[in-house]
Amino acid sequence: MKGFVFHGPGHSSWEDVPDPGLKDPTDAVVRVDTVTICGTDLHILKGDVPEVRPGTVLGHEAVGEVVETGADVRTVRPGDRVLISCITACGRCAYCRKAMYGQCRGGGGWILGHLIDGTQAEYVRVPHADLSVHALSGTLGGKDAVLLADIFPTAYEVGVLNGRVRPGDTVAVVGVGPIGLAAIATARLLAPERIVAVDLAAARLEAARQLGADAVADAREAPEQLIADLTDGMGADVVIEAVGVPESFEMCTRMVRPGGHVANVGVHGRPATLHLEELWIKNVTITTGLVDTHSTPTLLRMAAAGRLSTSQLVTHTFPLDLMEEAYDVFGQAADTGALKVVLGGEQHDVVALPAA
Prior knowledge:
Helix content: 25-40%
Distance between the termini: 33 Å
């Protein structure tokens, strides 16, 4: 079969790899139909995730058909169409018993495309299949479902739920790439009074408006003042950090009101200053987290019922064998306008890169 293989920083290719097989009785093998590329995959290609060994097939999100299951798998069987979660869960360890699947100590957590071969291939082995794949209804297309493998549960759990968004709140989302946009879409489910999107890119701010942001602000033009003006000087009830740089995190702490919540979703590669000399008196709650995907069944039901739109985030589609071109488009998002690229499925609109 073919798979997208990491060969070290700056080196990767779509190439022949061995077909996966069952290793444990809790495994399933899935024929991949639809996949997407995550910003984390770009970090891996840059060498920012040293745990990923050269020779690893990348990817941790997919939709496909189960072709083989181990003897202990009970929830799916060959022929079932499934969503493969970005998080694998053993279901038995102390963390899994608390639905903290991202912290699984029984051979799960984020392992696909990280510690073992992932989903950007024609077939993939999924350990602990009972809790790590989700059967799909016939009403949900692959392009809609695949975004529920990672970015939507991440935005909802680590941003919206950790931030404790409530009806009537003012919610600020700083950084409206795919995760920030998914945070806007899922925050709307909880009926805040207003959602304010903050970013540097005009195209992303327009996408935020289309997904339900009530106001937008250029990050270079004092968005803290806009928040203050909208809230009579109080600040936002919830601020979701979806960038992962010190400047954006510190901006979030300036936007939040006393008693409010800052929910950090962004992956930080550099230290950020925590201004406790200003925050200690404000009763502010700051949360961090890796997605657990405990919300995935709920989000799947919402999407199948037409209550949650996901495919609006998809800007580019490719056939599976154009994985390298898809990575180029996604990696040059500032030039291509890419939000999410999806590979596979039935319809493909291959987009040429801008001339050098």
